[in-house]
Structures are given as structure tokens and as C-alpha cells.
Amino acid sequence: MKNKSYIFDDLKIIFSQERLNGYLSRMQSNDSKDEALIAYSWNIELSQALYPALQILEIALRNRLHYAISESFRTEHWYEMSFLHAREKDQISQAKDNLRKTKKQIEPGRVVAELSFGFWTALFDVRYEHGQILWPKLLKTTFPFLPKGHRTRHYLSRELNRIRFLRNRIFHYEPIWHWQDLNIQHDSIVNLTRSLSPSASDYLNIFDQFKKIHTDEKSKIEIKLTEMAIKQEKRYE
């Protein structure tokens, strides 16, 4: 890449040494700032490409679970009931506090929307299988289009927690570019979304460009960065 110093000098506000080290440590040459900048930029592209799939899965999951649990307990206020464990109760309390701070009514739809992806994945813990509190009785209602061989709490807990880890990495701007299983993880997100709602999956297809970006776009990043370096060089002439 041409004149990397122009880019790095102007982007020190982004590249703290600690953040840069997280990329340099995975380079063939651990002092190659050129390679690190390409990897950092590639990471942004991949994270952006995964966002639609993560967003639609999260919304579809929480709404489907809310519906299934409400039907089972015959109340939309199921989150007030004693079957929830302490950690989930704390998250419910925090969601209500957040609504109060913004002067919004505490009603089921708002509480559900306020709860994190971590809350919903926690409901697939084995704790909620004991006494058949939620599982397996709600599996068919929650994931009506999931193949029977995968329709188990254990399978869903494993897949959703793996996706949660990926989601948190992306939302905290952490490196994922070097992961070897991103295609598999993307497939899992899409398949679970389809298992919740084929219509939601069809809607996702309108926006989902991950496969194309993962396959074709990395080679374009160095071109873009080289063009940026040329512009930076001219600025200092």
C-alpha cells in the first residue's frame, strides 16, 4: 500500500496501540501496519455485512418467544412471574428502570423490546428445562419450522450462545475477520431465522450481502486504502 504513514498519522484517533496490537499479533509480520490496516478495514466490512442478519434474528426470536410464553402462561405479563431466575429478574428490573427514565409506559411490548439478546438466549439454559418450565413444551411453538432433529433446547442454546458471542464481538468493535467459521455462523443465523419465520428469512434476503462481501470484497479494500493514501499525500504537498 502506498504511503501508509499518511493514513496512520491522521488516524491515530482510531488506532490506539492496544487496538492495533490486536491486529498486528495476527499478521505474518507483527510490525506490518499495512496488513493491520487492511485487516481492520476488512473487519468493519464484515461486521457491517452481518448486521442485518443479527438484527432480524434477534427481533424475530424475542417476538416469537414473547408470544409462545404468553400463550403458555396465558398472560403477556409473564415476566412478572416467579419462574424466572434471579439474573433474568434483574434484567427485567433494569428494563423497567430504563423505561421509567425515558418516561415511557411499562407495558409488555416495551419491556420485551428493552431486553437484551443475552436475556432471550438465557431462557434456553437448562435451568428452564427443569420441571418443563419452558422446554421442551414450547419448542414447536417457538421454532415451528426447525427440523425435528434439531428441535431441542440443547441445540438451540448452543447455537444461540455462539451467535450471541459473535454479536457481542461485533457490537463492541472487536476483531472477527480472522475467524475461520464466519460462513458457518452466518448460515446458522439465517437457518434459525427461517426456523422462526420463513417470511422473516425472505425479508432478510433483501438486505443480506454477507456471502458476496465475504467472498469478493477484501481485494477492493486495499485499492480504497491506496486511493486514500494518495489523497492524504497530496494534502501534505
Can you put this structure into words, describing what you see?
There is one protein chain. This protein has 237 residues and is mostly helical. The protein has one domain. It is built from 12 helices and no strands. It has helices at 4-10, 17-24, 33-73, 86-101, 108-114, 117-122, 139-142, 153-171, 182-196, 198-207, 210-216, 218-235. Helix 3 (33-73) packs antiparallel against helix 10 (198-207), helix 3 crosses helix 12 (218-235) and helix 9 (182-196) crosses helix 10 (198-207). The two termini are 19 Å apart. The mean pLDDT is 90.
Topology:
Layout: H1 4-10, H2 17-24, H3 33-73, H4 86-101, H5 108-114, H6 117-122, H7 139-142, H8 153-171, H9 182-196, H10 198-207, H11 210-216, H12 218-235
Distance between the termini: 19 Å
**What structural category arises from helix and sheet content?**
mainly alpha
| Beta-strand share of residues | under 5%
Overall pLDDT: 90
Total strands: the figure is: 0
Give start-end ranges of low-pLDDT stretches: none
Helical percent range? Answer: 55-70%
Task: Give the domain tally.
Answer: 1
The main β sheet shows up as:
none
Global shape: elongated
**How many alpha or pi helices?**
12
